[in-house]
């Protein structure tokens, strides 16, 4: 059924409908009839052209999307690899640091050099107190004996001279024995010094692991014990090293 555009009614047509091209009539030329097949061919050609244009545009767009996606994946992959490397190095540093700290505090208390150093210092203090007490007691005995001998010699009494000299000799011997603590305390302090050097060695190793530059920290020496509650504890810093602290000349100048 083909619609008749002149009458508007539908008529049967067994042959392809032809359209007359009227453009040539105005110039006196003969008209060219366009068949349905020509229109279909033109439409197919146009459709194929549009499809090719769309296909090329979509292809270029997809290529851009693929390139962007590949770039994003590469960046993410690089970031993940870098992060994994940093975490691996950090874990390695932590493991070495843990071993260094573990070497300072072994499982057995008998092998703990820090505890050993603390015990040695306690022994030094105890030995020093004992020796000092003994030296003071013998010195008092010597003073009493010298005073008694002076009185006896002044009175011309020499009967107890030999006994007095023997007692004086015993006192001197006891003093020399008491002064022997210096050798023992020297040995104990040497152990403590070796322990401090051992600790310093491992601390330097940890500083090297974490690339910590010397002199970049802020630290204050703990002179007083943490539980020291004396109001003037900041003024009681104990004996100073030679050349350190306030000199006697400064003190004399203060009172003059």
Q: What's the layout of helices and strands?
A:
Layout: E1 2-3, E2 10-11, E3 18-20, E4 33-35, H1 36-104, H2 113-154, H3 161-178, H4 181-209, H5 248-255
Antiparallel strand pairs: 1-2, 3-4
Helix pairs in contact: 1-4, 2-3, 2-4
Offer a quick outline of the entry:
With 256 residues, the protein is mainly α. The chain has 5 helices and 4 strands; from the N terminus they run E-E-E-E-H-H-H-H-H. Among the domains are: 32-104; 108-211.
Keywords:
256 residues; mainly alpha; 5 helices; 65% helix; disordered N terminus
Helix content, binned percent:
55-70%
Portion in beta strands = under 5%
Distance between the termini: 137 Å
Oligomer state equals: single chain
Structural class: mainly alpha
**Helical region count?**
5
What is the residue-averaged pLDDT? Answer: 75
